[in-house]
Design brief:
Layout: H1 2-27, H2 31-56, H3 60-88
Helix pairs in contact: 1-2, 2-3
Amino acid sequence: MIIEWASAALILLVLVAMALSIWRIVQGPTGADRIVALDIFLAAAIALCVVASILTARTVYLDVGIGLAIAGFVATVGWALLLDKGSAS
């Protein structure tokens, strides 16, 4: 019973974080803000994968979360390097 309530609260908070990060991605004002917001969005997606794994008792969602974490890390590093090169010239 407590797991369902905690999961519902976590899902609600994660959806709020996703909505706020989407707003920051669209609103800007700088590229760095958008990169951080995208990283927050990916972290929220990973949290949803963990909740789905707990609620369904299937580990396949954890594999999806790991894949999202790897893709998010590579994307963040790539965008940071791109911004760094753009500001150096």
